[in-house]
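Our platform keeps sequence and structure together, in a single record for each protein. Because each token names a local backbone shape, the row as a whole describes the fold. One such record is reproduced below, unchanged from the form in which we store it:
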Amino acid sequence: MNKSVRLLGGAGAIALVALGASPALASGTLAGSSITNTVTVNYQVGGISQTSTGASDTFTVDRKVAFVVAESGDMTTTTVSPGQEAAVTTFQVTNQSNATLDFALAVAQVATGGSGAHTGTDSFDTSNVAIYVDTNNNGVYDAGTDQQVTYLDELAPDASKTVFVLADIPLSLTNGAFSALTLTATAHGSATASSGTVGSLDAVLAQTSGANTSGMDTVFADVAGATDAANDGKHSAKDDFTVYTASLTITKTSRLISDPVNLTTNPKAIPGAVIEYCIIVANAGGSQTATDVAISDPLPGEVTYITSSTYLNGSVTGGACNEDGSAGGSFASNTVSGTLSSVAGGETKTLRFRATIN
């Protein structure tokens, strides 16, 4: 009994090894495989068993071409800043075919007024668009590591590859500007084999027409993509960029502080009068924080700057500058300068200084 148990255990192990060696693929039996089925017929003549006879049938598994291009990552629009270079949006190409295939990759700009993968209407085109493959398979674009490509080489059945589309964003864009791109993959492969040549793009595939042949036929089973039809050997998906930037409004005001005759009571703009300038920097609500906001105000020859009169980061009430903020800034070459470290969305800050009318 113990021996029988050990034998059964050994047979079970052998069966597990066999299953592990030939895993079932979601894509199905590999294209080009030969499937043979043999029938055996046993019979008797005069009660005597005769030599069995039979027949075999063999056919070739055809190539089912199915694949998907899909947006990858957080499934939201990619936020960018005006002037940003090499902004990245991410796709994944999955080979659902029962054959190893190449996939030619192409990116197209969505026409102005068109829609992207997310809420938005295309309003600008990007530039310097390039496609990179995730060479180290970490799901993140790594400059200098990931390789620029025009096709995916020998992607196996049930395998996926991450693809990055990089683009430069124009500088002169406002908050909420939207640009959409379409990535299209086209199936390429060997005409006669279930895999092609490593290191080169095989020929574009054509669907086999007419009746089933004895060889490996090709059947397009791809679904419709963002811009392509079903069963066309292509699949496409969209992704997009949304500009998230500061939306600054600059206002400059002035008010009389005093004059040599009336002093501070109803002063007039006469020579010797002191005037206070206020520069108001407002960032619209919902906008990106503006940083290193450098203000430069050359003075006209008719006024003279009052030393150490510049104050930064003041506030505004009713459109008028308050007497607050902190001393700072500089004055050189008859120009008042100062930098606001940041102005957040919905925030208003000021730079104010005083001068005397010559």
Summary: The helical segments are 2-21.
